[in-house]
Design goal:
This protein is α/β, with parallel strands linked by helices and about 500 residues long. It folds into 2 domains: about 170 residues, no CATH class; about 325 residues, 3-Layer(aba) Sandwich (Rossmann fold), CATH 3.40.50.200. Helix content is about 30%, strand content about 15%. The protein has 15 helices and 14 strands. A 7-stranded parallel sheet has the order 7-8-6-9-10-11-12, with helices on both faces. A 3-stranded antiparallel sheet has the order 2-1-3. Helix 12 links the parallel strand 9 and strand 10. Helix 4 packs across helix 7, helix 10 packs parallel to helix 13 and helix 11 packs parallel to helix 12. The protein is elongated and about 70 Å long. The protein starts with a helix and ends with a helix. The N terminus is likely disordered.
């Protein structure tokens, strides 16, 4: 598995770097009795919390477990901070200048405290802030990423009024990637497609079968997404898929913009820049295809909002948010999307079973800037039977979406999570087979297939974009209300499927 291989390579490289302070620090730690809890005990606590509450945050652990989780990973803690006595921060994240002297002092004081206490514990190494902050000193939002090795310091920090949260951001549960990984995951190879699974429309574009279940083609008589930008935060887009490159404007799609960028850093070298926008997985290419692929003349599948602008951000390696680098990548991607006034809809077909304070900060920052954030409820195999909606879709600021099989009554797709946090569903699987939706492959005009809550999320984000394009002055609240009123179960809300699937034509023609 790629991440396990990466960890192995990092371990080998660390053995070869004989004079770094990083290595010395671990030797120092080895010489001091620490007794962190075993991973099995930490993992079991996480499972218990998920079964009990449906969510997990590191603030539910005691000091020893949090410290143990940190030192059993990369020792990096994500620390959310604020001036003592700060009120209502969540609703004001977009209004505060975190470079203000008051906020800078809190941040600097915490860094100085951690550096001083670390050097007090290991006085021979003379650690600096730069040594303890290998991922850099991001300060656009009120959190920091810093190494903490001392259990007593964890206890001290947790009791300070200036500290909002401490997360063991790099902790990886045993087999977490295997258990949570999407049934489709990193696979976007072209497939042999049955003609019954699509309809060809002018100028020669394929409409996936499930678009008709949501009356998306009917909505195109009113809106094609023109003038609205949708942000896809995922694994990037393939440079070898011209429909998300040089042919983004082709066929019946014209006059729109495409921005490709990246926030994910795969290298373990702290000074490395982000990898860039290129998709090495396939998932982001598929999601961008579902939401905004052009209505081309070469036989490819089109996206729901085929005349919308697209901001595609590579924030993760694959569909599961794991470790410090991916958490940082998602955080920075959300901030980029939030700061662009043309972006109205943010689609996130990625997730984790571990809550993250800094991603919550970024989600709320984007939400407070008026963005409609649509997130996947979860797609997996072994977790499906007992874990509900995953993070960040479980947040109130996100609209959680999952996939169902075609037809009624509603039945979840084979690998989809459901739960009370689900707002909408989208048909993503044939009733009596495993056939899923069609979208762009990594490099070919021949479509590939994709299902699960990931595909449902990107498709629903496309519908939201169609609605917003009918009147760009609409608010998020107005767009969301149109989605609800055009949904199959409205005004009722099902405990597993929310308001049901959206009639896109009804939604774009609403007079609300």
């Amino acid at each position: 598995m790629k991440k396990n291989l990466l960890i192995a390579y990092v371990g080998i490289a660390m053995l070869l770097v004989s004079c770094s302070k990083e290595q010395i620090s671990h030797h120092a730690l080895d010489a001091v009795p620490q007794n962190p809890l075993p991973k099995s005990e930490i993992d079991q606590f996480v499972y218990n919390q998920l079964e009990k509450t449906g969510q997990f945050y590191w603030n539910s652990t005691d000091d020893r477990m949090l410290w143990s989780a940190a030192v059993r990973s990369d020792s990096i803690l994500s620390i959310g901070y604020q001036p003592a006595g700060e009120k209502d921060l969540n609703n004001r994240l977009h209004l505060i200048d975190f470079q203000d002297n008051t906020w800078r002092k809190v941040r600097n004081d915490l860094i100085e405290l951690i550096v001083a206490e670390t050097n007090k514990k290991w006085p021979s190494h003379n650690f600096t802030a730069r040594d303890l902050m290998p991922l850099g000193d991001e300060d656009a939002l009120p959190f920091m990423l810093i190494k903490v090795w001392d259990e007593a310091l964890v206890t001290q920090l947790r009791r300070m009024p200036e500290v909002r949260y401490l997360d063991a951001v790099g902790y990886l549960m045993e087999d977490m990637e295997v258990r949570l990984r999407s049934g489709s995951g990193c696979d976007a190879e072209p497939n042999v497609i049955n003609p019954s699974d699509y309809t060809t429309i002018s100028p020669n574009a394929k409409v996936p079968w499930n678009f008709y279940n949501m009356n998306i083609p009917g909505a195109w008589n009113t809106s094609t997404g023109r003038g609205v930008t949708i942000a896809i935060i995922d694994t990037g887009t393939s440079p070898n898929q011209p429909k998300l490159g040089s042919q983004f404007n082709s066929g019946a799609s014209s006059g729109r913009t495409l921005t490709r960028t990246g926030t994910y850093v795969s290298s373990w070298w702290p000074w490395s820049p982000p990898d860039g926008p290129n998709d090495l997985c396939g998932h982001g290419t598929q999601m961008a295809g579902l939401a905004a692929a052009p209505r081309s003349n070469t036989g490819t599948t089109l996206g729901v909002a085929y005349n919308a602008n697209l901001l595609a951000i590579r924030a993760v390696e694959d569909v599961v948010i794991l470790g410090s680098s991916e958490t940082n990548g998602v955080t920075n991607a959300l901030r980029i999307a939030a700061d662009r006034s043309d972006v109205r809809v943010i689609s996130m077909s990625i997730g984790s079973i571990l809550g993250s304070g800094q991603i919550e900060d970024a989600v709320r920052y984007a939400f407070n800037r008026g963005k409609l954030i649509i997130a996947a409820a979860g797609t997996s195999t072994s977790f499906t039977t007992w874990v509900g909606v995953v993070f960040p879709a479980w947040m109130n600021e996100c609209v959680a979406v999952t996939g169902v099989k075609e037809g009624t009554p509603l039945v979840k797709c084979d690998v989809c999570h459901v739960g009370s946090k689900v707002e909408f569903v989208a048909p993503m699987q044939r009733r009596n087979s495993s056939m899923t939706s069609l979208t762009l492959a990594m490099y070919s005009d021949t479509p590939t297939t994709i299902g699960g809550s990931s595909a449902a999320t990107a498709t629903t984000a496309g519908i939201a974009t169609l609605i917003w394009a009918t009147n760009p002055s609409q608010t998020r609240t107005q767009v969301l209300e149109k989605m609800r009123r055009a949904a199959s179960l409205y005004p009722s809300r099902n405990s597993s499927f929310g308001f049901g699937f959206i009639d896109a034509s009804k939604a774009v023609n609403s007079n609300l």
